[in-house]
Amino acid sequence: MATQCKLYRNSPQIIQPNTWTLLTFEKTLRNDRKMARNLSLIVPPADGDFIWARNIRWESITVPDGDDRPRQFMSRFVRDPHTAPDDTGAADHLDSPGRDWDTTTWIFEGNAGQPVGVQVWHDHHEPVAVGHAQFIGITWDY
Questions:
Q1: How far is CA 30 from the centre of its chain?
Q2: What are the beta bridge partners of residue 103?
């Protein structure tokens, strides 16, 4: 039996520089077996192998004239983000002045009752908005 949970946001969440920040979502699009928690986490009801996916759109940045330093934008899945963070499936890229998309799929084990979220980080000199995000957990082991 397949089980799916999908969280969705389509308005800006401001991300401060140099700080791992847990993404929050505006609504739950699918919530099989009541896996969604607090519009930020997916909590598996049983152990299993999951396909986790995230889609993040970073909004445009403003780069001061003459500032050509590279800016790193990162995202990752994180287990137990509020207690004992354990990250996996991290991805990074250089950001451009225009909108940037980051879509990542990762297959890893989900443990019953262990919350999983998505965190983002950047080293731009000022806050940057994540304007759109989706977070999905799918399993077929139940």
A1: 17
A2: 55
**Overall residue count recorded for the chain in this entry:** 142
Residue 25 forms beta bridges with which residues? none
Distance (Å, rounded) from C-alpha 80 to C-alpha 16? 21
How far from the centroid of its chain's Cα atoms is residue 115's Cα? 13
Q: What is the pLDDT of residues 45-78, one digit of tens each?
A: 888 888 999 999 999 998 889 988 888 899 999 9
Q: Which amino acid is at 43?
A: V
The answer to whether residue 94 scores a pLDDT higher than 70 is no
Whole-model pTM: value is: 0.92
109: nearest Cα among 51, 29, 34, 30? 51
